[in-house]
Batch of 2 targets.
Target 1
Amino acid sequence: MHGHDHAHGSDLGRILKVSTVSTLVFVALALVGGWYAHSLALISDAWHNFSDALALLLSWFAVYIQSRPPDSVKTFGYHRAGVLAAVVNAVTLVGIALYIFYESYLRLKQPQVVNSTVMLAVSLVGLALNTGIAAALYRSAKGDLNIRSAFIHLVGDALGSVAVLGGAVAIRFTGIAAIDPILSILIALLILWTSWDIIQEALNVLLEGLPRGMTLPQVTAAVKGVPGVIDVHDLHVWTLGPHMLALSCHLCVADIPLSESREILRSVNLLLEQRFHIGHTTIQFEHAPCVEPCAVNHRGS
């Protein structure tokens, strides 16, 4: 299993490395193009792409870190590295968005003539690049917050390039220079929207929250349904990192031999793994008659 994970990590690392370099090359092209064409929308798109190059770089670093085995200090391994990467990356995005709002306001007060041909050419390159990288990351983006944050950025970038493309065509046909800062504001809103979703989910992981789509009553009811389990309490589920969920609880069972309680434990672990993908469990047995306060009494044990 670990060999498969490692191979998956190295493939992902390679995709992220190539993506980061090509995105940085495009950022340079868009900044020069934006400066030459006097297009704030193009410069905004360049910053948007730069934030994604940063996202990809952090994701690549996190994939590398996450593949490191646990040690005597980081006993769960380095799975939260990806989540921290996502937070740093989203906070950077907020700063960039605020800067674009300010620049757009100045441009709306004093519009500048824009070279729509350069805008058109650069945005076409950006669209092709972002769509290509997003497609390469699509498969890995489903279960990993870190990779999903990079993927969402790239989809946002592709949309940004479409907006700049449309803006270039509109400026060419109407000659209205204000289209450029208005587009920049839309790109900044897009940046804020993507970053908010990432911050929200990353904070949920850092605050030991339940993963999306899972509720405590759901898990409790499922565990209670296992034959031999009389009651369950002091149940906690939390997210350690991408693909890593942990659970601890107290199970109340009849006064039975150890061999029978071992069977119950195996059934509970199997249920948690198959239905909820919870791989790390700490389960404490209590024998009936079981009263609620025993949760408090046993906490230290």
Target 2
Amino acid sequence: MDDYRTINRAAWDERAPAHAASPDYARSSFLEDAAFLSGVVRFDVPLLGDIAGLRGVHLQCHIGTDTLSLARLGAKMTGLDFSGASLDEARGLAAATGAEIEFVQADVYDAVDLLGAGAFDLVYTGIGALCWLPDIDRWADVVAELLAPGGRLFLREGHPMLWALSEASEGPLAVEHPYFQTEAPLIEDDGGTYVQTDAEFERTTTHSWNHGVGEVMTALLARDLQITGFAEHDSVPWDALPGRMESLPTGEFRLADRPWRVAHSYTLQAAKPSAPPS
């Protein structure tokens, strides 16, 4: 099972420079405008609320554009990712913009050992992260342990129903992949990536898992976290089903044909009680 880390890390290491150079990650906008936020975090702001002064950690932060955006909203941020190449890009962006962000290279399951229990007021996990983890219960353990009493989790993720759909660009929408977490990963061989780039990649194999909404909620509730918010959305911040989606003025994408048929993404918030349950 541990081999999935090696396989996936190789793919992310190779793609990180291409992602940083792609207009989709808008690096130049971060450099030119000190108030610029990533599209993902701009979408989050109405539900995220005021995070000024919070100690935050962004799990699976990739090249750090969302981490930097959260720092620009006033949080004291730490970013964690298992890809050294991704963190090279994240550190470079932070340095170029004068942001004080600590970036730590580690597998998400090792976060507590490196960062400390109860160290954060905010745990943030962004879009397209959970699918790279084989065990949602272990992830929930990490979230619960990282949070200080009274702290909260903010998660926006691709909806497991969207992940379960076939990527075929023609014909009726079809459910092809598991909705629920499975022991065996979905193994894909794809030479592309989700951003605009002319780069060609050699590391084309990835291992991923889907996690049903109920599985995510149950895992958090089992660790005495309180679900404080849940919303489903009819858009995602990337072209998830090429040939079937339309771009929106917000920079998000949704099904061009009757988008109300399928939830595209969701936001889940949970809080750690200020005192242990009696």
